[in-house]
Prior knowledge:
- The complex is a heterodimer.
- By secondary structure, chain A is an alpha+beta fold.
- Chain A has 6 helices and 22 strands.
- A 5-stranded antiparallel β-sheet of chain A has the order 1-3-7-5-6, with no helix packed on it. In chain A, strands 2, 4, 8, 9 and 10 form a 5-stranded mixed β-sheet that branches.
- Chain B has one domain (about 1-245): Ammonia/particulate methane monooxygenase, subunit A (particulate methane monooxygenase, chain B, Up-down Bundle).
- Chain B has helices spanning about 1-40, 45, 60-80, 85-110, 120-135, 140-150, 155-160, 175-185, 210-235, 240-244, and strands at about 165-170, 175.
- Chain B has a two-stranded antiparallel ribbon.
- In chain B, a hairpin with a 2-residue loop joins β1 and β2.
Amino acid sequence: xxxxxxxxxxxxxxxxxxxxxxxxxxxxxxxxxxxxxxxxxxxxxxxxxxxxxxxxxxxxxxxxxxxxxxxxxxxxxxxxxxxxxxxxxxxxxxxxxxxxxxxxxxxxxxxxxxxxxxxxxxxxxxxxxxxxxxxxxxxxxxxxxxxxxxxxxxxxxxxxxxxxxxxxxxxxxxxxxxxxxxxxxxxxxxxxxxxxxxxxxxxxxxxxxxxxxxxxxxxxxxxxxxxxxxxxxxxxxxxxxxxxxxxxxxxxxxxxxxxxxxxxxxxxxxxxxxxxxxxxxxxxxxxxxxxxxxxxxxxxxxxxxxxxxxxxxxxxxxxxxxxxxxxxxxxxxxxxxxxxxxxxxxxxxxxxxxxxxxxxxxxxxxxxxxxxxxxxxxxxxxxxxxxxxxxxxxxxxxxxxxxxxxxxxxxxx
Amino acid sequence: xxxxxxxxxxxxxxxxxxxxxxxxxxxxxxxxxxxxxxxxxxxxxxxxxxxxxxxxxxxxxxxxxxxxxxxxxxxxxxxxxxxxxxxxxxxxxxxxxxxxxxxxxxxxxxxxxxxxxxxxxxxxxxxxxxxxxxxxxxxxxxxxxxxxxxxxxxxxxxxxxxxxxxxxxxxxxxxxxxxxxxxxxxxxxxxxxxxxxxxxxxxxxxxxxxxxxxxxxxxxxxxxxxxxxxxxxxxxxxxxxxxx
Lengths: 413, 244
């Protein structure tokens, strides 16, 4: 007894120790590095305000570029995509969303290699602290998760209201919509079903005597259906009649309550067909790329051509949602403890590129985020291809965005 | 005389114990298996308000749900001439489904109950059990009761569902109330396009999607009933059990 008591205590402690007490993210690091680098590149992301009360508005907006290097084994965005939000459940309600101004209520399709702006308007619903991400759900491929920021919701859930008006002029609260009818009809059927069961099982004992009678009837060559009495028959007819009448009556009642109904909406929204591909004054080609594992150091040699009017410098390297920032060009500080920013993670040698100039430059991206975000996992990928966006900043305030791609070689010592 | 009465009382006590144990074990086990199978196969249709369409929801869940109740009906009818197992399994299934929706999706997931309510199936089960008593024929029960099981799922749920198909305008688009709930109450891993719902009208029979689906569901359910009944009869065969 004592032995079992100790065992139970140890078991309880182990269970409590391994149970997650809280969840802080949505598995955004779980996706293969390869997938994160070569699918959706999210940038200029703004999520705010970071502190709101229940019922107040939070906006998630920014831009994304659908990588032209999309892995061929992953279903692409040209079938169906849906702009979504990762918030760990309906802690917000989504009031509106759009991609390039086109409503995102229904799913749509996009094109690889193109830039899109997006915006989602949320209304805070439940108090708490939530990590909010933009997500692009891609049919048959899953969610492509963008970077997330923490949003704190204060107040009380009881203050939340979500009313809409139907085209028939009825104002309904979606939090409790039609719940009365749902509960009443379920109770009605549980009562009717329970009454049917009670009629049959009220006689005790039930199974063994009936089994004996059935066996006896069969062994005598009689019909075991004789166990069904005339009263049973009348009761069954009564129950069938009541059931059918309730179904017909309920249907008529439903028709009266909602005289005009439409089927569920599933039309696909089309994006404008003439959207151009993004252009740039810069051409950049990866000549070589290595990742030195002990030093968590990524090095890339780029052949860059500047066809623009301004002298350019690389200010940011965006890869799989991680932003490596060149502190000599721009200052970016992490907004919260999970912001994927290496504020001084980018170092450029031979960096400034004048108008019309072609040169080889060395790019070093060094930060623990390579390991933390599991980007070095691409060493285990079958192709070990690295892809991302380079942000060039001109001395005239301009910005050029270039997508790069290349094979990465690991250095093990 | 007293000893004989004692033996009779003891026999009745054991028979009542067998009743309780068998009924509890069989019905709960089958209802539990039903909710598990439904959850991992066609669960989404069964509770999300914006999955309850007029083409697939009145067909797939009702056909899948009939498998276990029809199979266990074979055993209860052949052994005991008891027409209760359809109703018992579906009633317990409904109770389990409410508990699951309330705990998993409302309390834990945070969705309003009005968005994740279980469908009504109990009247369909009563129809089958009553058909068995009235016809005392498996063939006619399949032809009539099981057909009605598929045919009546839409009207049986309409008093609950109709309001969710009421139109509204939202950001310039016409939606049903169910669609709006699906858009507003965020499901990270369940985007709009994942729904297996009607995406265009049928090319024939005009716009008669609902009645056509209902009749087809009735036909499918008749077949499911016969197949499940035969499977239930085979599994109920004692000779087969003895070999094991």
